[in-house]
Amino acid sequence: MLIMNSTVLDNKTAAGCFCMEVGMEKVYKTMKSVGVCDLVMGIVVTVFGCATGAFLITNGARLLKRKKEVLF
User: Fold this and answer.
1) What are the tens digits of pLDDT across the range 29-59?
2) Distance (Å, whole) CA 15 – CA 9
3) Structure pTM?
């Protein structure tokens, strides 16, 4: 018998509590890794989007600057 929080628990219940604690620890570790991955991906997408936007703006400006040179 195991005494826990002023109650008497048998070995099966105590093992169940231990398994639940280990399971919750795995859940928290998974949540942490997913959160870090989401942050990294968000930063990468933001940087890529800004770089692509700047590239498109500069190319558009160059096209507008040289529109008189374009012959159809």
Assistant:
1) 999 999 999 999 999 999 999 999 999 999 9
2) 10
3) 0.60
